[in-house]
Design goal:
Elements: E1 11-14, E2 23-29, E3 31-35, E4 39-45, E5 56-66, E6 74-80, E7 83-91, E8 94-98, E9 103-106, E10 111-115, E11 120-125, E12 133-142, E13 153-157, E14 162-165, E15 168-174, E16 176-177, E17 180-181, E18 190-197, E19 202-206, E20 212-219, E21 222-225, E22 253-256, E23 260-265, E24 270-275, E25 279-286, E26 292-296, E27 299-301, H1 304-315
Antiparallel strand pairs: 1-26, 2-23, 3-4, 4-5, 5-12, 6-11, 7-10, 7-12, 8-9, 8-11, 10-13, 14-15, 15-18, 16-17, 18-25, 19-24, 20-23, 20-25, 21-22, 21-24, 26-27
Length: 346
């Protein structure tokens, strides 16, 4: 999916200096953006205060939209470099076509993973005959320097690993959770999991303490609960510090609803989530991304010069190849601000 903003902002990101070395509960608000003329999305990453979660660098949540009498998603051919796109549908269908010759209709529960590498172009459109609802998320993963210029590729995985527990169905999009590993290709340590929770579910999921994590809610609302406060090594055995919660008590909980992103920091060995009603959550995480990057429009690169070269090539009809789906989307004008790679937070 494209960033169709006419004046896309410059985003500089990467480096581990601003990654918290401990768990946090930081609720970040998204913003509404029009995707073409027909689809409104909630942009949750990058957002004010945070640019990356592991290698995850872009999150758009759209729908649920009633499109029975409408054209639905209509994103014309556009380019990408230096990233992977992860398309995840909860309702509806989207036809993906790219300059490699891929022509696939993506449906709920299926992973569409496109690796841009050196250069690729694609289009995304609702089929002429499509379901009444359209609901999903579009995610980008930044590629590390060693993989940023690899040949482009597209993967369509229709059989993903699923973990079940009381009131939980967890589908692993990318990476691994509790021994269940997705077949999707990754280039840095990361994970993405769709959590379908029944009303009243109260579940715990294992996490990697070295990863940073975030949670968003495509539908319903889930409450993320922090575990019991760890004991103070300097306190007397058996004594509770003044004003502290009793041992084993829940000390914090944050409700996550559509339109918000809850950043969890690092240092967690598990995640506890409670759902009052039927809820869908996306859990995203990964090893904090060390490299510094520049992200502008649909490009992720190591320098501003690479971004400028990609824009020039796209506008000249070079490098990206041809793809069906309408007239190619023209690139916006380059910003006056120098494109200098920086850190993870604003």
């Amino acid at each position: 999916m494209s960033n169709l903003e006419l004046r896309p902002g410059l985003v500089t990101c990467g480096g581990r200096g601003d990654t918290p070395g401990e768990p946090v509960l930081e609720l970040l608000a998204g913003r509404e953006v029009m995707l073409g003329e027909s689809t409104k999305v909630r942009r949750l990453l990058p957002t004010l205060g945070r640019r990356l979660v592991g290698a995850w660098c872009f999150i758009d949540h759209y729908g649920p939209d009633e499109i029975a009498d409408q054209s639905g998603m209509q994103v014309p051919p556009h380019p990408h470099i230096g990233l992977q796109t992860v398309s995840w549908l909860l309702d509806g269908a989207v036809r993906h076509r790219d300059s490699l010759g891929s022509d696939v209709t993506i449906r709920p529960g299926q992973l569409a993973l496109m690796t841009a590498g050196h250069a690729i172009a694609h289009s995304e459109q609702s089929p002429a005959v499509h379901p009444a609802l359209l609901h999903g998320a579009q995610l980008w993963v930044a590629l590390p320097g060693r993989s940023r210029n690899i040949p482009p590729a597209f993967e369509h995985h229709t059989d993903l690993p699923v973990l079940t527990d009381r009131g939980l169905r967890a589908t692993v999009l990318l990476g691994e959770l509790a021994g269940a590993a997705s077949a999707g290709t990754v280039h840095t340590p990361l994970v993405g999991v769709d959590l379908a929770l029944d009303a009243g579910a109260d579940v715990r999921l294992p996490l990697e303490p070295d990863f940073e994590y975030a949670v968003l809610a495509p539908s319903g609302a889930g409450t993320v609960l922090d575990g019991p406060r760890p004991p103070d090594p300097g306190a007397d055995a058996g004594a509770e510090p003044s004003g502290a919660e009793p041992s084993g008590a829940e000390v914090a909980g944050v409700r996550v609803e559509p339109g918000g992103l809850l950043y969890l920091g690092t240092g967690r060995s598990e995640l506890r989530v409670r759902a009052e009603s039927a809820t869908r959550l996306l859990l995203l995480g990964g090893e904090p991304f060390e490299e510094r990057l520049v992200m502008w429009w649909n490009f992720v690169a190591g320098s501003g010069a690479e971004i400028a070269e990609a824009r020039t090539d796209w506008m000249a009809g070079r490098r990206f190849g041809a793809v069906a789906g309408g007239q190619p989307l023209p690139a916006p004008a380059m910003p006056a601000t120098p494109l200098i790679p920086r850190g993870r937070t604003r």
